[in-house]
């Protein structure tokens, strides 16, 4: 039999330390003041003129596609992406279709006014 002391490998002798640490400032080079002012202005505009928030049901793959568009287009939220898509779509509508779109939209807006 040997008289060697058993080592406990589950308890290291010194704590592990990372070679390099990262902070938010190291990763992102964003001017916080400018970004926060723009965000506050956008949020105030959207809260005042847009009305209440709603939810729309869609499939998971559609949600993932929309999230990818948010990332690619560098927008703040899905509303901006959808507004861009609506604007693009309404540009190719004929005059008759555009009038019909506006009429339906006006009718829906009247239905959702706060009472």
Automatic annotation (TrEMBL):
State the Pfam families in the record. DUF5388 (PF17363)
Top-rank lineage group of the source organism? Bacteria
Disordered: where is this region?
A: 1-39
List, alphabetically, the InterPro entries matched.
DUF5388 (IPR035528)
Keywords from UniProt, A to Z, are: Plasmid
Ranges annotated as biased composition (Polar residues): 8-34
Q: Spell out the protein name for this chain.
A: Replication-associated protein RepC
What is the scientific name of the source organism? Answer: Vagococcus luciliae
């Amino acid at each position: 039999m040997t008289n060697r002391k058993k080592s406990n490998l589950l308890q290291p002798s010194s704590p592990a330390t990372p070679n390099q640490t990262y902070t938010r400032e190291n990763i992102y080079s964003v001017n916080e003041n400018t970004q926060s002012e723009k965000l506050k202005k956008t949020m105030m505009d959207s809260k005042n003129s847009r009305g209440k928030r709603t939810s729309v049901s869609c499939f998971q793959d559609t949600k993932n596609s929309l999230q990818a568009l948010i990332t690619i287009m560098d927008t703040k939220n899905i509303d901006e992406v959808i507004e861009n898509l609506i604007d693009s779509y309404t540009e190719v509508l004929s005059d008759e279709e555009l009038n019909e779109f506006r009429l339906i939209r006006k009718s829906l807006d009247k239905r959702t006014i706060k009472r």
